[in-house]
Design brief:
heterodimer; A: 6 strands; 23% helix; B: alpha/beta; 8 strands; 21% strand; globular
Chain lengths: 120, 225
Amino acid sequence: MHEMSLASAIVNTVVKHAGDRKVTLITLKTGGMRQVVVDSLEFYLGFVARDTCCEGAKLEVILVKTRFKCRPCGEEWEPDLPHFRCPNCESADVAIIAGEEFEVDSIEIDEEEAACTAPR
Amino acid sequence: MHRTKVKIVEEALDANNTIARANRSDFDRSGVSVVNLMSAPGAGKTTLLEATLGGLDLRVAVLEGDVQGSADADRIAAMHIPVVQLNTDGGFGGECHLDANMVRSALPAFSLDDLDLLIIENVGNLVCPAEFKVGEDTRAMICSVTEGEEKPLKYPLMFRACELVVINKIDLLEHLDYDLDKLLYNIDAVHPDVPKLLVSAKTGEGVDQFRDWLTQVAAGAPAPA
């Protein structure tokens, strides 16, 4: 059910930018810290995109690897487990420098095909 | 026919965050502090509120989020505490979380100006509520000792998206093969230094500390993450 809400959020974001032009491809960036099941997201996108300019659009997902940085010592690493302690100095002051993304990166628009008529 | 690529780069949950900020402004204007209370189903959110709210010297109200029914809201209403039930069963069998817009739709039912504290009891779920801000000042999550010690590693987003972890049902520890130190270690790995409270909503152990925490929140502390 999580993915249905996320799919709706994607469609709403795309509709805002596409206006009434037909969208053929949605490219999404999602980070390793987000708990997104891509197959499930694609499935729900098929439903929530109906009667919008995203109907029939393909989804392309770019997965962004999680990357942490220790603020005190500057160590950077890609964690296998969500452990927020620096492996170098044990500090808990750790920043997530990549992996929290959930953004519509780009869309591909069909400039000449029939426009969508039912904005969300 | 030709296709054009359009660069967007926009956080897909921006719309939710915008509404969450509007909720937050309304809360701030009314001087009410708001706690988003989250957990897995059955961890004891409502039972903890029942144990806590009676002795709380604050003007408090509760917003109950559930997929269906009003069982939890009925329990809070029985304590003569203002409560509003939000059901999320409009979609494919029901939304698994409250979002900012759902919370916004319920706000007219409260006299926010007459409240010190609003507790939003989210839908029981360890994934989705962590993703959707609703305009809260602070978030608390409950994990109970009948859940596994590995839960923080399996649901890191939830264990990070909170300013307090309440470990509930500690009265059961003596009956369980449960490694509390391992849970504490895993919480610390995912969210170092997050405050933790050991509580039994049933026996009342630790409930005073949770009440103190709520009182501090109502007084304007701690700051949200």
